[in-house]
């Protein structure tokens, strides 16, 4: 009697509207799963069209091409003799649903629409889809003719149902449903479902992996069962990075852990588990069994297929493992770096251009590119053919093989120190030393001629000459003279990004990188249309506190001693005149608060969702040992000075 099942889940780097590429990655994952003996394969949410299609979901073309990919999957010999669970948009009775389509041997078994849509933070699923609200109910879905010809089915079940195979019962959740207060797996488990599947499109947030793993392990701790989680990976052409973390759990333990950060487009996890372990685990939980006796049953789709084999007595089973977490600094080192690689290879540009100021923020951005180069070299060393082909396309050398991250960095990263009369020798030296240590192609230039020309135009037209505050000018004059420097740097950055490779006899253009951290963005401490207006800003969601920890990690892990002096130096925009050759302006003095305080404000505003009064109440308790209530109420406010665009 068969009791051991081998199941597979995966993390795929799917791309919005890349139907052909998505099809090939899905087929590859199924092929790997079958090769490892799996008889059930789960893929990520909306894997056929790519998760980030946004308003393209409104287009009938997106639905049509998704059906064409499904048809190709149904008729492929790769998908035979394995239950395949894929994600795609489906229109039922003129309503669009985010669905799982589960099929076996050219027959569609069930179309399961998502019942709880993600609609907070970065997610807008209610804009494009409607949740299925009819719990434990199904309808007939009339297949399009292109599918009827393949499956020889006219209708298939559509709705909230579970699959009943010869040896077990399988139920589906989709991403957000795991995070709801009463997840479907609760009642499904009470109704005898033994294998839960969750197809996700879950993006990376620092420390989010802990919550994801806790939810899965707690679900199976309380109710028993096997839980498979699949996820999208990569940037999908958007600002978000989807961080994989596919997993397989049973009865509160993890049995397979996927990578959180990887350049592999296809990653498949399999585990062989004993169904009797679920049944014996559940048998001794009397409270669960009492609840199970009262639960309403799910419609069951009978499947004449078994996940286990008749003779599996000698089949080895998977052993539980401990989940290995990255530290927040390691997450920063790996996640944004993978996102940068995805963005670069998909955009078909030749590299990045980064204004490097000698401060922590731009140094952190440079380190992300250097970390990306490390990961690319490691992937090539491990024999990843896709990464090798992509890097050869980027550098425009068909025979090139990257081996040294520093050498690769010199090919794909151009850094530039844009000095003005207000810049110090110390920041120039720090920028140059870091560029030398990571190997970037480094440029030093002065923006003074451009700044003086622009100010000269103003003076010529108005007959007035603005002055810095230290020279007797007003606050408005002082701020305008700082902002013109910052904005000139943006114009210079884009000019060099477009033409610097041309000047070196190389082909292609560069993507401009920004370096504005999340705390300063929340506060508004930046100049509009300075270098924060870049093509992409890889540190835009990271606080200064976390960035400093990441830079410290890079200094130690990558042996970059230049970062020590960068960390030790006070943050400064260097937009006001020097005092005796020394920096006279610091960011914290301009803002009227320290970066540590700013990080607290950012967390209270963005994470805790506090307004001014609620923030005041929380700060009273947090700062009770250092500030009186009056001091908290009168916390100094920023005076509206722009910051350096190259921090």
UniProtKB/TrEMBL annotation:
<dbReference type="Pfam" id="PF00795">
    <property type="entry name" value="CN_hydrolase"/>
</dbReference>
<comment type="pathway">
    <text>Cofactor biosynthesis; NAD(+) biosynthesis; NAD(+) from deamido-NAD(+) (L-Gln route): step 1/1.</text>
</comment>
<dbReference type="InterPro" id="IPR014729">
    <property type="entry name" value="Rossmann-like_a/b/a_fold"/>
</dbReference>
<dbReference type="InterPro" id="IPR003010">
    <property type="entry name" value="C-N_Hydrolase"/>
</dbReference>
<keyword id="KW-0520">NAD</keyword>
<keyword id="KW-0547">Nucleotide-binding</keyword>
<keyword id="KW-0436">Ligase</keyword>
<comment type="subunit">
    <text>Homohexamer.</text>
</comment>
<feature type="domain" description="CN hydrolase">
    <location>
        <begin position="5"/>
        <end position="275"/>
    </location>
</feature>
<keyword id="KW-0067">ATP-binding</keyword>
<dbReference type="InterPro" id="IPR014445">
    <property type="entry name" value="Gln-dep_NAD_synthase"/>
</dbReference>
<dbReference type="InterPro" id="IPR036526">
    <property type="entry name" value="C-N_Hydrolase_sf"/>
</dbReference>
<comment type="similarity">
    <text>In the C-terminal section; belongs to the NAD synthetase family.</text>
</comment>
<dbReference type="Pfam" id="PF02540">
    <property type="entry name" value="NAD_synthase"/>
</dbReference>
<dbReference type="InterPro" id="IPR003694">
    <property type="entry name" value="NAD_synthase"/>
</dbReference>
<dbReference type="InterPro" id="IPR022310">
    <property type="entry name" value="NAD/GMP_synthase"/>
</dbReference>
<protein>
    <recommendedName>
        <fullName>Glutamine-dependent NAD(+) synthetase</fullName>
        <ecNumber>6.3.5.1</ecNumber>
    </recommendedName>
</protein>
